[in-house]
C-alpha cells in the first residue's frame, strides 16, 4: 500500500504542495521525490479542480474513507496524495505565520504582534475572526501591493476593528516580510497600508518608519480635558498640556510633570470608554537614569486590552508635537511598558523634514496557520 499524504484542500501554490508532501512522507517514500514534484504539482492542479467525487479509499486510511471527495495524485512511486474535505475544512488554506515582539531586543518584553504572510484570498471576515482569536492588540496580514511603488501591502486588525495605520504593526510586519525573503526595490522599504505609503529604513539592528502626518492636531476642548482628568484620577493642574496627535488611531496625548506621575496612574476606564489616550512625561536623569528621556503609557479602554504595552503610532504623534514645540531634542528614546512589566524602547530621530520612529523586533514563534 502506498503512503497516503492527506493534502488539505485547497492547496494553491507549488511551495505549499511540496512542503506538505515532504513533511508527511516517510523517509522511504522521499527517495527520488524531488524529480517528481513538478509532475506531481501539475497533476494535482489538474485533478484537484475536478468537481466530481472520486473514491480513493483503497489508497488511504480506512478511518478517513468517508471524507474522500477529490482524486488521487501519484507524484512519485509508492506515494498517493488524497484530498480530504468535510464541510468547512474544504475552504481552509494554510499560511506562513509569525508572532513577534516589537520595540524590544529581548523576548517577552516588547509588544506582541501576529503576522500572516501571503494572505491573498482571505476575506475581511476571516481576517477579523483571526485577529479576535489571537487576542493581541494587533494582527496583520501581508499582501501583494496594489501601488507599484510599494514593496508589500499590510492590513492591520485589532480585536474590534481594522486600522489604517499603527506603529508596532508597521515595524513587526516589515521585519516578518524581510525575514521571509522579501527584498526591497530601493534602500528604503515601502509599505502600503490604509493611510497610503509608509517609508521604512534599517536602523542598526532594528527598523524605523517615518512618522505619518497628523490627521488631527491642536488643542483639546476643555470639556474633554476635564473628562479625561477625572477618568485618570488626576488633580487639578496635573495635566500640563493636552494635544490631538491623531495619525490614524485617534490619539489624544497628555503631558504630565514627571515619570512617577505617569507610572502611578490607575484610570477609571468606564469614564474613558471610546477614547485612545497617551500620557507622557520626562525622565529625571538624577532620579530615573539616562537610558531614556521620556516615559509613555497608552490607554485604549474598550479595545480588547486596557493598556497597550508599546505604541509606535502614539510615539510618532507625540514626536510631532514635542519636536514642533521644542519640548524634546532632535534625537531621544522613549520608555514604555514599565507599568506592565515590559521594557519597551522607542527611538525618535528628526532628520531634515522627516521624523523616524524605530526599535528592535525579535521573532518568538514561526509556523503555519490554517484559515
TrEMBL record:
GO terms for molecular function: isomerase activity. SUPFAM superfamilies: Diaminopimelate epimerase-like. It comes from the Bacteria. One of its GO terms (cellular component) is cytoplasm. Coiled coil: none annotated. Pfam families: PhzC-PhzF. InterPro entries: Phenazine_PhzF-like. Belongs to the PhzF family. This is Phenazine biosynthesis protein, PhzF family. It comes from Pseudomonas syringae pv. coriandricola.
Amino acid at each position: 500500500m502506498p503512503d497516503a499524504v492527506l493534502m488539505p484542500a485547497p492547496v494553491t501554490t507549488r511551495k505549499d504542495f511540496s512542503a506538505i508532501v515532504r513533511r508527511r512522507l516517510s523517509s522511504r517514500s522521499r527517495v527520488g521525490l524531488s524529480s517528481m514534484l513538478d509532475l506531481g504539482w501539475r497533476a494535482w492542479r489538474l485533478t484537484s479542480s475536478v468537481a466530481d467525487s472520486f473514491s480513493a479509499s483503497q489508497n488511504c486510511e480506512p478511518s478517513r474513507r468517508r471524507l474522500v471527495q477529490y482524486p488521487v495524485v501519484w507524484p512519485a512511486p509508492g506515494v498517493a496524495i488524497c484530498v480530504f474535505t468535510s464541510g468547512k475544512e474544504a475552504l481552509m488554506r494554510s499560511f506562513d505565520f509569525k508572532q513577534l515582539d516589537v520595540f524590544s531586543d529581548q523576548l517577552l518584553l516588547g509588544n506582541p504582534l501576529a503576522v500572516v504572510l501571503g494572505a491573498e484570498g482571505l476575506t475581511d471576515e476571516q481576517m477579523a475572526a483571526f485577529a479576535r482569536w489571537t487576542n493581541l492588540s494587533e494582527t496583520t496580514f501581508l499582501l501583494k501591493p496594489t501601488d507599484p511603488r510599494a514593496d508589500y501591502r499590510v492590513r492591520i486588525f485589532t480585536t474590534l476593528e481594522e486600522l489604517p495605520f499603527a506603529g508596532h504593526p508597521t515595524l513587526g510586519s516589515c521585519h516578518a516580510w524581510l525575514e521571509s525573503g522579501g527584498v526591497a526595490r530601493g534602500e528604503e522599504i515601502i509599505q502600503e497600508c490604509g493611510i497610503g505609503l509608509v517609508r521604512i529604513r534599517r536602523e542598526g539592528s532594528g527598523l524605523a518608519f517615518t512618522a505619518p502626518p497628523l490627521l488631527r492636531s491642536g488643542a483639546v476642548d476643555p470639556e474633554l480635558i476635564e473628562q479625561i482628568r477625572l477618568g485618570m484620577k488626576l488633580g487639578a493642574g496635573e495635566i500640563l498640556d493636552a494635544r490631538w496627535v491623531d495619525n490614524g488611531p485617534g490619539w489624544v496625548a497628555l503631558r504630565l510633570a514627571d515619570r512617577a506621575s505617569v507610572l502611578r496612574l490607575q484610570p477609571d476606564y468606564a469614564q474613558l470608554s471610546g477614547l485612545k489616550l497617551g500620557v507622557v512625561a520626562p525622565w529625571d536623569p538624577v532620579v530615573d537614569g539616562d537610558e531614556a528621556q521620556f516615559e509613555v503609557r497608552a490607554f485604549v479602554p474598550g479595545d480588547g486590552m486596557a493598556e497597550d504595552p508599546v505604541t509606535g503610532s502614539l510615539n510618532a504623534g507625540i514626536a510631532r508635537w514635542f519636536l514642533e514645540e521644542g519640548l524634546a531634542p532632535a534625537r531621544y528614546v522613549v520608555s514604555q511598558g514599565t507599568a506592565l512589566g515590559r521594557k519597551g524602547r522607542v527611538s525618535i530621530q528628526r532628520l531634515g523634514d522627516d521624523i523616524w520612529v524605530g526599535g528592535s523586533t525579535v521573532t518568538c514563534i514561526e509556523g503555519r496557520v490554517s484559515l
